[in-house]
Amino acid sequence: MLDIKKIWGDTYLINGEHLTQDYNQAVIIANKGNSMKYFIPIESKKCSFWKNLKNKLNFPFIVLESWM
């Protein structure tokens, strides 16, 4: 979790240690050394066109079935 606090004007305190005047830089500093847990790259979620089409066509029926 990012610990970024706005102190005054456009000055931000990051993790109680660093000061910066740019929010984007604050996010970069806060994320240094932190890795996202359970992050799945987009390229690993590729599926075939037909499987994707089948899922899109079946979705309304699944919702209707769960409602009944």
What would a concise description of this structure say?
This protein is an alpha+beta fold and 68 residues long. Helix content is 41%, strand content 18%. It has helices at residues 23-31, 49-67, and strands spanning 4-8, 11-14, 18-20.
Report on this structure.
This protein has one domain. 41% of the residues lie in helices and 18% in strands. It is built from two helices and three strands; from the N terminus they run βββαα. It has a three-stranded antiparallel β-sheet, covered by helices on one side. The longest helix is centred in the C-terminal third of the chain and has 19 residues. The chain starts with a strand and ends with a helix. The relative contact order is 0.10.
Percent range for helical residues? 40-55%
* Structural class computed from helices and strand pairing: alpha+beta
> How far is it from the N-terminal to the C-terminal residue, by CA?
40 Å
Q: Assembly state here?
A: single chain
Overall structural domain count: 1
Give the C-alpha Rg: 21 Å
Strands of the largest sheet, in order across it? 1-2-3
Strand content: 15-25%
Low-confidence stretches: none
Biggest sheet overview: 3 strands, antiparallel
